[in-house]
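Recall the central idea of this unit: under ordinary conditions, the amino acid sequence of a chain determines the structure it adopts. In this exercise we apply that idea directly, starting from the sequence alone.
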Amino acid sequence: MIIFGTRGVTYSTDSGEFYCPTCRGQIPYKHKRVRRFFTLYFIPLIPLDLLGEYIECQQCDNAYEPEVLHLDLEAGEVEFEAQFHQAIKRIMVVMMMADGNVADQEVEVIQGIYSQLTGIDLSREAIGEEIIQAEADGRNIANTLADLAGHLNDNGKEMVVKAAFHVAAADGEFQEEEKELIVSIGQALEMSSAHVNGLISSLLE
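Accordingly, the structure predicted from this sequence is:
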């Protein structure tokens, strides 16, 4: 009795480094193809038609169309920078709103930190617009930080937490609900509670 048929076989044809849109960095990849083979006794013997091909990131395991190899690295970095700028602005505004009072000192601290981190001046009107948008979004910081968590190193994550702390403490008071919000910011950035609390303690000294 002869057993024959066809099945798809996945194999690697090439490897190298590429700009991964998910990892947002230069990451090793494997170029994989799926080809239909004629099989005899379940053993693939004769290659037939090509079923598909993709680029597999060796860090996040996501698969992309081969065109991803031609992505503009500079454009990817610009996109991430814009995303970070928006996130840090939203976090500071939500932090300012935590106690239900928008103080002039807090607005000035936000302007100073944003300018220092981004090199961009932030007007009071822009902060007002961000307050309105934050209210409309339900002040949800988890979604704001979700895409950043895997792309910031420890120093970057600590920088976000420190920015939130300085806004909270700008009015001369640091309340428990503000501390809880900062801890939740750290958790959204995949920092441990011990790490965040230790950072807060050092900032309070």
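The CA atoms of residues 152 and 160 lie 10 Å apart.
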